[in-house]
Structure to design on (376 residues):
């Protein structure tokens, strides 16, 4: 059995054997991960700082975290942030009526693991923002060491969020208990050359769609159904599905009130997903207001409206599309897409431009044979 490698050993091996190019930003992150790794395995008495890796899309944050995770010899868990929050909400519901449920939840984690690695910390949901401050602090006090990746520095998280002051304790906890490292190399490593494997097509009017042949190739002689599926208790209607793939229209997956939990379920059930009729997702933003009410929580506020971010008509479906691509990428599930416009023109501007950069980078990597990577 091969001895697990430390982050430094794994990085040097990748450079020597896999043709990786040295990257000063990555090397800085490796040093922080190596320090944390050695502290965890040397049984030091003092508290151990976790590592918070942040930077632009494709800079290698997830790969570095996974190298750290694979080498651990202490109990650990690795999750996408969507999965982590799904587990948190499920456990908090089960703990309804319990005194200090966040402390109880953190204690459960500490009994099971020493290290929690989670990928793509990105906070947009107000419910998540409200509970993360207390949860992070309880986890750190319970001795759980966190290693996290994000496209944003801690102080940028939830930057335009409503009631953001309620999220500030979460930021303070992250900065107090973690070594924050900017992995800010200019290169998107997902775009390195590789053998192509087309999984994105622009639909040409009057010509047969590409996904008919793709679906037939993926499913072979397996039985095919056009009946509905149930995701998270909600019925959805695929174009067709088989044990080898599920094919949906964009409207059915992304214009319905589905959640990240539903996409988790989808990726667990099907090894490939096809989406047709993806429209141009951009559009002019329009200002919006919402009447103040009980969602303003404990603070008393003056009557009137409060501003919402300027959104376009597609932005709700774009959020779901982002969550779907994240889940497919994290699970190594190829996503085959037929759209009205070229990939670079799907969402050229808008309120969600920042998270959509990650989506575009991941879709581009899916056009290579090396996706999904071995072991995913």
């Amino acid at each position: 059995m091969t001895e697990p490698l430390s982050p430094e050993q794994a990085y040097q091996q990748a450079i020597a054997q896999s043709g990786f190019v040295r990257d000063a930003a990555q090397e800085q992150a490796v040093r922080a991960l190596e320090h944390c790794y050695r502290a965890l395995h040397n049984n030091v008495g003092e508290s151990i700082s976790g590592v918070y890796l942040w930077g632009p899309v494709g800079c290698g944050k997830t790969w570095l975290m996974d190298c750290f995770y694979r080498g651990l010899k202490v109990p650990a868990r690795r999750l996408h942030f969507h999965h982590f929050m799904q587990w948190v909400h499920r456990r908090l519901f089960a703990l309804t009526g319990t005194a200090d449920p966040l402390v109880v939840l953190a204690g459960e984690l500490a009994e099971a693991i020493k290290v929690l690695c989670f990928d793509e910390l990105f906070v947009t949901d107000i419910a998540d923002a409200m509970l993360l401050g207390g949860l992070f602090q309880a986890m750190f006090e319970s001795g759980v060491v966190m290693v996290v990746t994000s496209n944003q520095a801690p102080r940028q998280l939830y930057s335009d969020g409503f009631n953001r002051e309620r999220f500030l304790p979460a930021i303070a906890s992250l900065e107090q208990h973690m070594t924050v490292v900017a992995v800010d190399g200019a290169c998107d490593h997902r775009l390195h050359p590789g053998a192509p494997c087309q999984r994105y097509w622009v639909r040409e009017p009057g010509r047969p769609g590409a996904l008919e042949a793709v679906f037939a190739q993926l499913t072979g002689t397996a039985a095919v159904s056009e009946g509905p599926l149930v995701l998270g208790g909600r019925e959805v209607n695929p174009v067709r599905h088989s044990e080898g793939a599920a094919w949906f229209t964009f409207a059915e997956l992304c214009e319905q009130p589905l959640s990240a939990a539903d996409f988790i379920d989808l990726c667990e059930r099907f090894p490939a997903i096809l989406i047709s009729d993806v429209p141009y997702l951009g559009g002019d933003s329009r200002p919006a207001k919402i009447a103040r009410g009980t969602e303003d929580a404990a603070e008393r506020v003056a009557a009137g409206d409060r501003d919402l971010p300027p959104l376009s008509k597609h932005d709700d479906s774009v959020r779901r599309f982002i969550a779907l691509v994240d889940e497919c990428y994290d699970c190594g599930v190829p996503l085959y897409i037929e759209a009205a416009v070229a990939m670079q023109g799907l969402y050229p501007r808008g309120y969600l431009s920042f998270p959509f950069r990650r989506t575009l980078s991941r879709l581009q990597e899916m056009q290579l044979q090396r996706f999904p990577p071995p072991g995913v």
Residues 7-182 form a domain with the Rossmann fold fold (CATH 3.40.50.300). The CA atoms of residues 80 and 119 lie 5 Å apart.
